[in-house]
Amino acid sequence: MMPAWYNRMNPRDALGVAHKKVAARRAKLAEQALYVKERDLWTKREEWIRKHQPVLNNPAEASALLDQLKQAAGKYNVLVENPAIGTGETTPYHQTVFASIETKSPWPPLVHFLYDVQRPDAFVTFENVNLTVDGSDPTMMRGKFKIARWFAPAQKTK
Q1: How far is CA 155 from CA 40, 57, 96, 98, 135, in A?
Q2: Is the pLDDT of residue 49 over 70?
Q3: Does residue 131 register a pLDDT over 90?
Q4: What is the largest CA-CA distance in the chain?
Q5: What digits encode the pLDDT tens for the residues 53-82?
């Protein structure tokens, strides 16, 4: 036999759960309505990506990415240390190569370097970033970056 206080709470709990479910469904409906409203925008973006995203020809693209990073860093006198390259993940939507670097520079040149490297049309993204103030010189920033270039998905062979 259930205590009387439990029987009184049970309908309240059920009503609370129902209110939460209704709120979740309303939020999902609002999200879906927004996607429908912005469908043309997302369709155009997908089309642009298909036309402009580069194709991964070989893993040497990672070396080219590292060269690009070194060139951009040199432009702003950002010191690059401990460079490494590799191939990243492959998904149905993209393939990646990456370069890992550590940097040392004052803050303003680092900001310019970061801005130059990550342009939408370059398909470059910072997958991991760790910035700290240099312990021996508070005017310098130390950065550790894993930077990837995204390529079009691999073409399926028939």
Answers
A1: 26, 11, 14, 20, 48
A2: yes
A3: yes
A4: 79
A5: 999 888 789 999 999 999 999 999 999 999
Q: Which residues make Cβ contacts (< 8 Å) with residue 90, sequence separation at least 6? A: 96, 153, 154
Rounded-to-integer distance, Cα 75 and Cα 105, Å: 12
Check if the beta carbon of residue 97 is closer than 8 Å to that of residue 151. Answer: yes
Distance (Å, rounded) from C-alpha 41 to C-alpha 102?
Answer: 37
- Three-state SS across 77-125? CCEEEEEEEEEEEECCCCEEEEEEEEEEECHHHHHHHHHHHCCHHHCEE
- Among 97, 92, 91, 85, residue whose Cα is nearest residue 150: 97
pLDDT, position 156: 59
Picking from 8-12, 49-53, 139-143, which range would have the lowest pLDDT averaged per residue? 8-12
Choose among 116, 28, 122: nearest CA to 71: 116
Q: Write out the two tokens for 137.
A: 């010189």
One-letter identity of residue 10: N
